[in-house]
Specification:
The chain is of the alpha+beta class. The chain has 8 helices and 17 strands.
């Protein structure tokens, strides 16, 4: 059963040559655990109304974008106006800006232009996905190395945000254990054997999330637009390049030999395609029940744990880690669009099929937001999972009057 929802307004940043739309479909699930973030200009204080022009969601193909395939493995939807499931959106520093944030924007807007896109697929609850939605883009773009070394900024920010999520879950588990122990003592002092179990952190499963994100960046001293893609888990990013689907990520699942070997080296095992028979992915944020926390032998620095050390949350004793794999590329004339989506879509649509479908819809009506909705809705007819996607069109220019 589909739940009522709303569609985000499309945004555009022609300084980076991007137009985008995004949509989330709850599908048959009882709850919506996906979260998305799409920010046209990370250095702007608010979602400006000036971006929402009549052309903001219209796709204008680059003259050298290559041929597009007429073959599509998905039936082209004929229905109109059926808005999908619950939709979740976070802007960049929305609300009233503090003096510190205003100064940060003023300092950074003269160094470059940046856009941020992220899809977060929660499991076991939505608390970790919501934390990523609220914190991850902030942690990345405010990192001291963002303009000089964005790969480092992404790596260290993901480590820090995962540490925050786990610390919060750990504190909650400890509090639950203390309250249970206190209640037991009040009821009876004749059964001390119950206390060790009650004082131990709960073994109940807690929430986690996988993620895929893309940072689109151009410095003021260069005309080149560079895209940094990072992923943790089985959310995926695919670019349509001259009609071909080019995968920018490789799912972190036990089916990957290197991932299975890493899990086994840490003392885990793979059963029924899951880590320890429980988790379908080998990397995720949160999931404290699958991690050694507090981490052993974490190297401390003046600014906190050393995120790139060989121990801590990414240590050899950790079966599940939130260390992202990164891919960086410079946008070329052949690059048409990127699709960032949760596994609810990729489980039922293969990479080339998604590129074919989106390309065909864009050439049919040029509406990026509409194409996002169509992709999510069509996947939801086959999938039993939440379906969320962001489509980012590249090499975009302001339309002329004839267009």
């Amino acid at each position: 059963m589909r739940k009522p929802g709303r569609v985000s307004s499309c945004k555009v940043n022609l300084k980076l040559g991007v137009r985008f739309g995004h949509f989330a479909e709850q599908g048959s699930r009882d709850s919506m655990e996906d979260r998305t973030v799409a920010i046209a200009d990370i250095f702007q204080p608010l979602w400006g109304k000036s971006a929402a022009t009549e052309h903001c969601s219209r796709f204008f193909p680059a003259p050298t974008s290559g041929t597009w395939s007429r073959d599509c493995d998905i039936e082209i939807p004929e229905e109109e106006g059926d808005v999908g499931g619950a939709y979740h959106l976070s802007g960049a520093f929305t609300g009233c800006a503090s003096a510190q944030e205003a100064q940060w924007r003023a300092d950074n807007c003269h160094r470059g232009h940046a856009a941020y896109f992220g899809v977060y697929d929660g499991h076991g609850g939505d608390s970790v996905a919501e934390a990523l939605q609220a914190q991850l883009h902030r942690a990345i773009v405010t990192h001291q190395a963002f303009h000089e070394d964005r790969s480092r900024a992404i790596l260290e920010a993901t480590y820090d945000v995962d540490m925050q999520c786990l610390s919060k879950d750990y504190a909650a588990r400890q509090e639950t254990a203390r309250n249970a122990a206190a209640a037991a003592l009040e009821r009876s002092t004749s059964k001390p054997s119950l206390l060790p179990a009650l004082l131990a952190p709960s073994g109940a499963r807690t929430a986690g999330s996988v993620a895929v994100l893309a940072v689109v960046y151009r410095s003021l001293s260069s005309a080149a637009v560079v895209v940094h893609v990072a992923h943790v888990g089985d959310c995926r990013c695919v670019v349509g390049r001259g009609g071909r689907a080019v995968a920018l990520t490789s799912d972190h699942k036990p089916a990957r030999k290197d991932e299975a070997q890493r899990v086994e080296a840490a003392g885990g095992y793979v059963s029924r395609g899951c880590v320890n028979g429980v988790l379908r992915v080998t990397r995720s944020f949160g999931d404290i029940h699958c991690k050694v926390f507090p981490p052993r032998n974490t190297l401390s620095t003046a600014e906190g744990p050393a995120p790139l050390a060989s121990d801590g949350l990414w240590g050899s004793d950790q079966q599940i880690i939130a260390k992202p794999e990164l891919c960086t590329f410079e946008v070329s004339p052949e690059d048409e669009f990127m699709i960032l989506a949760s596994d609810g879509i990729w489980d039922v649509v293969h990479d080339q099929g998604a590129v074919n479908f989106v390309q065909r819809r864009l050439f049919a009506h040029r509406d990026v937001q509409r194409a996002s909705k169509e992709l999510a809705d069509k996947a939801a007819t086959r999938s039993t999972d939440n379906c969320s996607c962001i489509i980012v069109c590249l090499n975009q220019q302001a339309p002329n009057r004839q267009q």
